[in-house]
């Protein structure tokens, strides 16, 4: 595994995503849901909303890094607010 | 006894695909993420760099210029290939021997490997021995794709149009063939002219396949590497250095693994976003029965 050049932060990053995927899979099996139409005008399930959140968060982090360039942890706070908005209204 | 309507054991059938995707995509992607936050001087020794490479890439004019060129390339080829493909499909024989003949002939460019296409056009455009370059030169047109930016751009765009318009045409043709005759009969009763038949029957009915065509062509052109690399090598200067050419130069030419990894992750995110948008639009069109 040396060639993969693992670090603790990146392992934690992938661990978090893997955990989220497992949680959402269990939720989908235990509590099946019907897709709903939100502000984007498209049908979304919990999984779709997770995808939108993760993808949006990546862009939020990049935008923060490019425009602000400091206190990256604050970008994560913005991502959490973004996640709440996506799960409530999208 | 009540029978279960679902059987989750079927998920095990997906296992081979998961293993394949893990080795071909997930593990390399994880490695790229790991590289993007570290610096290396070779010999498998890595040093933590944090978000430095991302910051460097975001403020690097070289990447933004390559992105601009890439968007321009994809925009131009889509603006040519989609209308041209529809035009070809509309004018193809709908049945009989000539229909099959056209389909076979149009499929031929799609079967040629990318590097061969590049080599064909590289020779074709040469002023000393290439038919195109020699003819243009003989006509007094100043054409030299190795030294002139406009010539280089025209060459790679015409090459892509030559290679891929048939894909759009074949997809559009499949869309046209699926329109029941009753629609055309109704249009005739209403005395609709040719333009109205196209605008209100053919185009809406082709929308689904056209979205697939746009998605395929956009993604493919956005990731294009081999053909322009073989023809122009990214030149003259950096005039045709598209994103993937720039990325390869950075990763393999300069061996800057950290910046190249950060670059490729941003490249990947843009592709992921655009794919998701197209996919969502396609699924919605499907639900509307288009």
Task: Give structural notes.
The complex is a heterodimer of chains A (90) and B (290). By secondary structure, chain A is mainly α. Chain A folds into two domains: 1-32; 36-90. Helix content of chain A is 70%, strand content 4%. Chain A is built from three helices and two strands. Chain A has a two-stranded antiparallel sheet with strand order 1-2. In chain A, a hairpin with a 5-residue loop joins strand 1 (36-37) and strand 2 (43-44). The model of chain A has no long low-confidence stretch (mean pLDDT 92). By secondary structure, chain B is mainly α. Chain B has a two-stranded antiparallel sheet. At the A-B interface, helix 1 and helix 2 of A face helix 1, helix 2 and helix 12 of B.
**What can be said about the biggest beta sheet of chain B?**
2 strands, antiparallel
CATH architecture of chain B: Orthogonal Bundle
Q: What's the total number of strands of chain A?
A: 2
The tally of helices of chain B reads: 12
Distance between the first and last residues' Cα of chain B: 42 Å
Would you tell me the structural class of the helices and strands of chain B?
A: mainly alpha
N to C succession of SSEs of chain A: HEEHH
Quick one: biggest sheet of chain A?
A: 2 strands, antiparallel
Approximate shape of chain B: flat
Rg result of chain A: 15 Å
The pLDDT mean of chain B sits at 91
Proportion of residues in extended strands of chain A:
under 5%
The share of residues in extended strands of chain B comes to under 5%
**Multimeric organization:** heterodimer
The strands making up the biggest β-sheet of chain A line up spatially as 1-2
Structural class of chain A: mainly alpha
């Amino acid at each position: 595994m040396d060639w993969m050049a693992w670090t603790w932060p990146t392992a934690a990053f992938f661990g978090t995503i893997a955990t989220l995927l497992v949680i959402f899979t269990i939720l989908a099996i235990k509590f099946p849901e019907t897709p709903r139409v939100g502000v984007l005008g498209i049908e979304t399930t919990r999984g779709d909303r997770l995808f939108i959140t993760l993808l949006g968060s990546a862009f939020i982090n990049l935008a923060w890094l490019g425009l602000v360039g400091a206190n990256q942890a604050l970008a994560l706070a913005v991502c959490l607010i973004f996640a709440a908005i996506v799960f409530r209204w999208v | 006894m009540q029978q279960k309507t679902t059987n989750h054991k079927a998920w095990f059938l997906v296992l081979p695909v998961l293993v394949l995707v893990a080795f071909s995509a997930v593990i390399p992607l994880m490695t790229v993420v790991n590289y993007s936050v570290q610096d290396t001087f070779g010999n498998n020794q890595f040093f933590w760099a944090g978000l430095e490479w991302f910051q460097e890439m975001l403020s690097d004019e070289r990447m933004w210029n390559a992105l601009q060129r890439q968007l321009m390339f994809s925009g131009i080829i889509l603006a040519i290939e989609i209308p041209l493909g529809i035009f070809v499909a509309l004018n193809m024989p709908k049945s009989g021997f000539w229909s099959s003949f056209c389909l076979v002939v149009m499929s031929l460019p799609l079967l040629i490997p990318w590097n061969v296409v590049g080599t064909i056009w590289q020779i074709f455009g040469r002023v000393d021995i290439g038919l195109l370059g020699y003819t243009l030169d003989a006509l007094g047109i100043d054409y030299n794709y190795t030294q002139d930016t406009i010539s280089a751009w025209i060459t790679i765009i015409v090459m892509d149009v030559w290679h891929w318009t048939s894909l759009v045409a074949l997809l559009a043709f499949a869309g046209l063939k699926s329109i029941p005759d009753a629609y055309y009969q109704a249009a005739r009763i209403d005395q609709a002219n040719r333009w109205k038949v196209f605008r209100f029957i053919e185009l809406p009915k082709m929308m689904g396949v056209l979205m697939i065509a746009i998605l395929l062509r956009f993604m493919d052109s956005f990731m294009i590497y081999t053909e322009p690399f073989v023809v122009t090598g990214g030149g003259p200067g950096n005039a045709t250095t598209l994103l993937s050419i720039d990325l390869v130069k950075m990763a393999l030419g300069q061996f800057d693994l950290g910046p190249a990894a950060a670059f490729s992750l941003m490249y990947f995110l843009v592709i992921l976003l655009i794919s998701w948008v197209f996919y969502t639009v396609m699924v919605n069109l499907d639900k509307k029965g288009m």
